[in-house]
TrEMBL record:
It is found in: Cell membrane. This is Polysaccharide biosynthesis protein. GO terms for cellular component: plasma membrane. It is a multi-pass membrane protein. Signal peptide: none annotated. It comes from the Bacteria. Keywords: Cell membrane, Membrane, Transmembrane, Transmembrane helix.
Length: 539
C-alpha cells in the first residue's frame, strides 16, 4: 500500500472512528434524558431517514471519488472539475426532492412501523412528527457529500475526516442541549424533545458544510494548478459523465443502505411478529434495544471497515485500470488482514462484556445483555460486507453487489418473522446474520473469479487472528468472572471498573501475542518497529 494511500486511510480511519465514538458516547446522556421510549421513537425515525439519505446522495462520495480518481490518473483533471460544478446543482435538487418525499410520506411510514396493539405511549402521530423533523437534513447532506467525494478522488482524506468529526460534535451538542432544555427544563413533551434531537442532523450537516467550504477555498489554488496540467484530450459531455456516475453510484446506493434496509425490515415486521406471539406490549422497548441501544454499540467495531471502504475504491480502481494485479493483491491482502485483526477482537470483546457494557451505557437490563451478546459478533459480518462490496466497485463488478445485497435482504425478509416467533428479539439478530452471510459468500465468489484474487494467504492469516482472539477471549472471560465475584455488573461504576480491567487485560494479551508472532509488524510495517524502538520493546 502506498504511503499516500496508507496516510489517507489512517486519516479517514481516525476521523471515522472519532465520529463513531462521539456518536456512541452521546447515547449515555441522551438515554438518561429520554429513556427507552425516547430512543425507540428516535430509532423509528432515523432508520427511514438513513435510507432516504443514502438514496439522495446516490452513493456520491464513493462514486465521485472513483470517477475523479480515474480521470486524474489519465491526466484529465478538467473532467472531474466539470462534474463537480454541475453536480452541486444536481445534488441540491436531489436533496430537496428527497426531503419533500420523506416529509409527506412520513404518516405512511409511521403506520407501517407501529403495531395497533402496542400498549406503549408511542403512536403513529408521534412517529410522523419525529420523521418530519429529521427530514430537513436531506436538503443539505447530498450537496455536502459531493464535496467530500471530490476531495477523496484527489486522495485528500483530511476534509472528509474533519468535516465528519465537526458534523458529529455540532449534532450531539444540539441533540443533548435541545432534548434536555425541552424535556427537563421547559417540561415539554417527549415527542418535542426527540423531534429536536432528530432535527440536530440538519444543524450538524450545516456545520460540516462550513468546514468543507473552508477547505475548498484553502485548497482551490492547488486544484487550479492541476487544471493547468490537464491533457485536454478528452471532451466528456455531461450526459456521458452522469451516465458513468450512475453506473458507479447505483451499487454504492445499495451498499450504503444495506444496514438501514436490514433494520427497516425489522421496523416493519418486528411489532407484528411480536404481536402474533402475544408480546405486542413489549415490542417498542425490545425494538429500541435491538435497533438503537445494541446497534449503537455493535457498529463501533465496523468503523475501521467503513474507513477502509472509502479509501480502498480509488486505489483499487487505479490498480485495476493500470492492470497492476500485483499491487492490487497486495492492497487487498493488507486491507483484509488489518480489518480482521482489529474488528474481530473488538466484536468478541463486546460480546464477552455485554452485561457491564450495556449497564454503563444504558441500564442493567437482562434483555439488553442477551441481545448485545448475540448481536456483537455480527459486526464482523458488517465489516466484511462493507469491504468486499467496496472491492467489487473497484473491479467494475457492480452488478454483483446489487445481486448479493438483494439475496441477503431476501434471506432476512424470509426468515425474520419465523425466527422472531421462535426466538423473539434474538430471532431478528439471527436473520440479520444469515442474510449478511449469504451476501458475503456471493461477494467472495465474485472477487475470486473476476479479480483472480487468491484467498488462501488471507485465510491462513485470518485463522491465526481467530486463534489469537480465542486465547484473548479465554483470558478476558476469566478476568471478568473473577471481578464479578466482588463487583456487581448491575452498578454503573462497578461495571465501568469491570470493563476497564477486563478490556485492558484482554487487549494486552492480544497485543503481546501479535507482537510476539511478528503479526503486527507484518500488518503495519516499519512504523511498528520505530514505535517499539522508542519504547525500548524487544518483543
Amino acid at each position: 500500500m502506498s504511503s499516500k494511500l496508507l496516510r489517507g486511510t489512517f486519516i479517514l480511519t481516525l476521523g471515522t472512528i472519532v465520529s463513531k465514538v462521539l456518536g456512541l458516547f452521546y447515547v449515555i446522556p441522551f438515554y438518561a434524558i429520554v429513556k427507552a421510549e425516547g430512543t425507540a421513537l428516535y430509532s423509528y425515525s432515523y432508520i427511514p431517514y438513513t435510507i432516504f439519505i443514502s438514496i439522495a446522495t446516490a452513493g456520491v462520495p464513493l462514486a465521485v471519488s472513483k470517477f475523479v480518481a480515474k480521470y486524474n490518473a489519465m491526466g484529465e483533471y478538467a473532467v472531474g472539475r466539470k462534474l463537480f460544478k454541475s453536480g452541486l446543482v444536481v445534488m441540491l435538487a436531489t436533496g430537496i426532492i428527497s426531503f419533500l418525499i420523506m416529509y409527506f410520506t412520513a404518516p405512511i411510514l409511521a403506520a407501517m412501523s407501529i403495531s395497533p396493539d402496542d400498549k406503549g405511549l408511542i403512536n403513529t402521530a408521534d412517529v410522523t412528527t419525529v420523521m418530519r423533523a429529521v427530514s430537513f437534513a436531506l436538503i443539505v447532506v447530498p450537496f455536502m457529500s459531493l464535496i467530500r467525494g471530490f476531495f477523496q478522488g484527489h486522495q485528500s482524506m483530511g476534509p472528509s475526516a474533519v468535516s465528519q468529526v465537526v458534523e458529529q460534535i455540532v449534532r450531539i451538542v444540539f441533540v443533548l442541549g435541545g432534548a434536555f432544555l425541552i424535556y427537563k427544563v421547559l417540561d415539554g413533551s417527549l415527542v418535542s424533545a426527540v423531534s429536536v434531537a432528530t432535527f440536530a442532523a440538519f444543524i450538524g450537516a450545516l456545520g460540516s458544510l462550513a468546514v468543507l467550504g473552508w477547505y475548498w477555498f484553502k485548497r482551490k489554488p492547488h486544484l487550479d494548478e492541476l487544471l493547468l496540467e490537464d491533457k485536454g484530450t478528452m471532451d466528456v459531455s455531461l450526459k456521458e459523465i452522469y451516465k458513468e456516475i450512475l453506473l458507479y453510484a447505483a451499487p454504492f446506493v445499495f451498499v450504503g443502505i444495506a444496514n438501514p434496509l436490514f433494520q427497516f425490515i425489522d421496523q416493519i415486521t418486528f411489532s407484528k411478529a411480536m404481536e402474533s406471539i402475544g408480546l405486542a406490549s413489549q415490542a417498542s422497548e425490545a425494538f429500541s434495544i435491538l435497533n438503537f441501544e445494541s446497534h449503537k454499540l455493535v457498529i463501533i467495531p465496523v468503523s475501521l471497515a467503513t474507513a477502509f471502504s472509502l479509501t480502498l475504491v480509488p486505489s483499487i480502481t487505479k490498480s485495476f485500470v493500470e492492470n497492476d494485479r500485483k499491487s492490487m493483491n497486495r492492497q487487498l491482502n493488507q486491507t483484509f488482514q488489518v480489518m480482521m485483526y482489529l474488528t474481530v477482537p473488538a466484536a468478541i470483546g463486546i460480546a464477552i462484556l455485554a452485561e457491564p457494557v450495556f449497564t454503563v451505557f444504558y441500564e442493567h437490563k437482562e434483555l439488553g445483555t442477551e441481545v448485545l451478546r448475540t448481536y456483537s459478533p455480527v459486526a464482523i459480518l458488517f465489516a466484511l460486507f462493507s469491504v468486499t462490496a467496496a472491492i467489487m466497485q473497484g473491479i467494475n463488478e457492480q452488478r454483483f453487489t446489487i445481486l448479493s445485497l438483494l439475496t441477503g435482504l431476501l434471506v432476512k425478509l424470509t426468515l425474520n418473522i419465523p425466527l422472531i416467533k421462535m426466538f423473539e428479539t434474538q430471532g431478528a439478530v439471527l436473520s440479520t446474520a444469515l442474510g449478511y452471510t449469504a451476501a458475503i459468500l456471493i461477494n467472495f465468489y465474485v472477487i475470486r473469479k473476476y479479480a483472480q484474487y487468491p484467498f488462501r494467504f488471507v485465510a491462513r492469516r485470518c485463522a491465526l487472528i481467530l486463534l489469537l482472539t480465542g486465547i484473548m477471549a479465554v483470558f478476558t472471560i476469566a478476568v471478568n468472572a473473577g471481578l464479578s465475584q466482588f463487583l456487581s455488573p448491575a452498578s454503573k461504576i462497578q461495571s465501568l471498573i469491570i470493563i476497564t480491567i477486563s478490556a485492558i487485560a484482554g487487549a494486552g494479551v492480544y497485543l503481546y501475542l501479535g507482537l510476539r508472532l511478528k503479526l503486527i509488524d507484518m500488518l503495519f510495517g516499519d512504523k511498528v518497529g520505530k514505535i517499539k524502538s522508542k519504547l525500548h520493546l524487544r518483543i
